[in-house]
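note to self: the first set is below, dont mix up w the second
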Amino acid sequence: MIRLADGKLLAMFSIGQAFDAADMRAYVSISRDNGQIWSPPAQLHDTRLDPMESESFKPLQLADGSLLATGYVFVRPDALTPIVDPATNALLPIHNKLARSVDGGFTWTTPERFSIDDVGLELSGPFLQLASGRILGAAAPFHLGPSGHEGWLISSDDNGTSWQRQAVFFRSEGGHIAPWECRLIDFGNERIGVLFWAYDLASDHHLSNRLALSDDGGTSFTTIDTGISGQASNAIALGPNELLSIHAHRETPIGLKVYRLALAGGTVQVTDMLSLFGDEMSGQGVARNRDPFANLRFGQPGLLALGENEYLASCWQIENGQHIIKTFRIRL
């Protein structure tokens, strides 16, 4: 979800017949009352896809007022082949794409593929645009091998016409830790951050979320262990050394929590915490294995500033057997 310059909220999400189904297509809804009521979902584009593609896009309003939707698609050879081969852990082909809107998100261009070094990136979070006009995105080259993992910061200086790899914001020794579900944070001036789910593929072990920080606009980074053991997460800056984060905890204790965090001396300190729901509402129970893709019952948490210290938190969730998108209004 983003707030447009005219005050409306725009939500972009995917709808399909099942989780990660081959017919997952991108949709848009708009709210004119700060998220109380949303327009019926409208398909991002009606282009017939052959072969099928399951879509995931996130919106960004650029300085010129236009909208940019960025993300990725999995190319589906048929309706039944899964994204991840259960025997080999091989992924279907992943293509990065973008679409544009010049009428406030009501109509969009057909998504076009863009590629950096011919690598498929897990661009699951929204991009950001710096005051200089440069557009930044953060993601990992997406694969499930035991090594060769790193996080890339990509950039464009021509409103998304051309892209390049600007920096590697994270690489562990041996490359066995994957930085998944990357979320960019704009702290202002030259300070940016990337919050991500760190997963050790060599030992199949969830690590606590990491925060990669840059004070030079994304040229160099240092990595901080947040100490928060969550998977998918998101965050927005409250100041140059403070942020509000939201984390999907998929290991016991399961739940969705919001944290107020302070950055000091190369560490992250939790100054406040709010639990939005726990085991009793997630319907997940205790995880019986450490498979990061098993038993997904909620995820893609987000935070959006509404003004006057009020924020809109969101996530998808399976509730009473149905996939829904849920929002929570919180106040600091």
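second set (the one i keep forgetting abt)
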Amino acid sequence: MKALKTTAHAVSITAGRLTGGARMLPSFLIVGAQRCGTTSLYRALSQHPMVAKPVLRKGVHYFDMAYGRGLAWYRAHFPLRRPGMLAFESSPYYLFHPLAGPRIAWDLPDVKLIVLVRDPVERAISAHAHELARGFESEPSFARAVDLEPERLAGESARLCAAPLSSSHAHRHHAYLARGRYAEQLARLEPVIARDRVKVIDSGRFFADPMPVYDDLLSFLGLPPMADPVFDRHNSRTHAPIPRALRTRLSEHFLPWDALLLSWLDATPSWRV
């Protein structure tokens, strides 16, 4: 099955390159954060009649993992241009990768970005369960994985910048706390992408009452309202209970970073209310 998918992808990209001049580039991107509801929002937006998703999969991962393939390769992932349609994709590593923001700003100078955020403690727990289930994490204890994170990530961001087409397994799969420091990542985006082109969404509020959040997002994207979209949760993960003391310690770790989100959300994060 994997071989068939790989072959189908190669054929599709080859065909896409041949018609590249007639294909769309994204008008907006869901750039993160990982385990914050990006798949659910992707599927909700994909229902809109004026939105075009990638041909094969939701995340192309061009600006983080495949930048060396070139813009023609990226364009080949999207449908042919149609009047009034906006293309998009969802690659939640873009927010955390140190080079993705400048690359996006260079190749898509007018693009709008969507960032979802959630309780960073819950995000970290969910991310560990996710990476463990996919075989990218060998440490079964969440507490131990958190303790290992500084050593695992030491120097990795600098190494990615020094070797721009390289990759880092630890940076992509073991950043449980670092990916939850959302304001740090948004601050890195701000010098290259204007704040008025970045929409930060509190996932807790989106899942509690999706329609107002969805309508506001459509307005941000310049899209008309959509009647009766379907909202579902996708890719949820179960996990073992976490000790109260560890939760408290991590919540205190994130407190100053959560406070910096106020200016992006125009509200206190839902998990701090």
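remember for set 2: The chain has a mean pLDDT of 93.
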